[in-house]
Amino acid sequence: MARTAAYDRIADWYEREFLGGPEAGSTAGNPLALGPLLAGLLGGGGGATCLEVGCGTGIHAAGLRELGWAPVGVDLSAGMLRHAHGRLPVVRADAGRLPVRDDSVPAVVTVMAHTDMPDYPAVLREVARVLRPGGVFVHVGVHPCFCGGFADRSDAEAVVVRPGYLDTARTTVSWSDQGLRDKVGAGHLPLAGLLNGFLDAGFTPERFAEHGAPTPVVMAVRARKAG
Question: CA-CA distance, 222 to 163, in Å (whole number)?
Fold first, then answer.
């Protein structure tokens, strides 16, 4: 997750305006619009623990509980966790060094957070470490092919992919019409780098999904740790 803790500076704006404004949940990249996608990939929990890495303000906790999971959150930003405290148990920690025992949780999710993590392949290895054998991991994130500094989304009906897709340098170019990325920047992994990160961490991908139209904004993966 971003070591600069950029979200500390915007946590109140994120909670009250980005998530709470009149258009909240109506745009495909807004986390509030992604509950059904997360639910469809994760499934029911039967009361088991689900660790959310990069939980932010904890907005998915209620949905996870409705699915039968007991959510626990990890995030680097103290400002975001200030809003999350009333929604789920949380701990402040780097996603690349999770304060969780090996093979200890049955499920992990991350939602619209991987572009805030400077070394996401390392995070995937950490997720694999803490998951129980046979455990499930659901990644819901920015679509690597159609969102980023290389993607001109000024016309939603005709997204133009310009040179730069293979450039993994962190950018401050906004892909969101809500202005979030203008404030915190974004990391980028091309599609092959993202999927190879799952394989290198030892995951077996089970399902893929895309969200947003006419050009997807989100790509999601359900993967499982070997039993």
Answer: 30
